[in-house]
Amino acid sequence: MARRTDASDEASIKVMMPLVDIILLIEDSNSDGFFTDYAKKLAKELIVIKDALTIGAKVAKLQ
User: Fold this and answer.
1) Pairing, β 45-49 against β 22-26
2) Fewest beta carbons within 10 Å, which of 16, 33, 41, 63?
3) Helix, strand and coil percent figures for the chain, each rounded to 5
4) How many CB atoms lie within 10 A of CB 20?
5) What is the DSSP string of 15-37?
6) pLDDT tens column, 34-48
């Protein structure tokens, strides 16, 4: 299930995503492909993880 609840959430995401170096998100948050499409549009690296428990291991690999 995509986790954007309303237009305000999407607007906030669209304001912040151009400012980041890497987009890291939980797989279920991208079920509609929103982040995949927007990351491609912005030429940003997108890292998708299975769940919140795997964030630490993924971030450690980035360093």
Assistant:
1) parallel
2) 63
3) 60, 15, 25
4) 12
5) HHGGG-SEEEEEGGGGTTSHHHH
6) 999 999 999 999 999
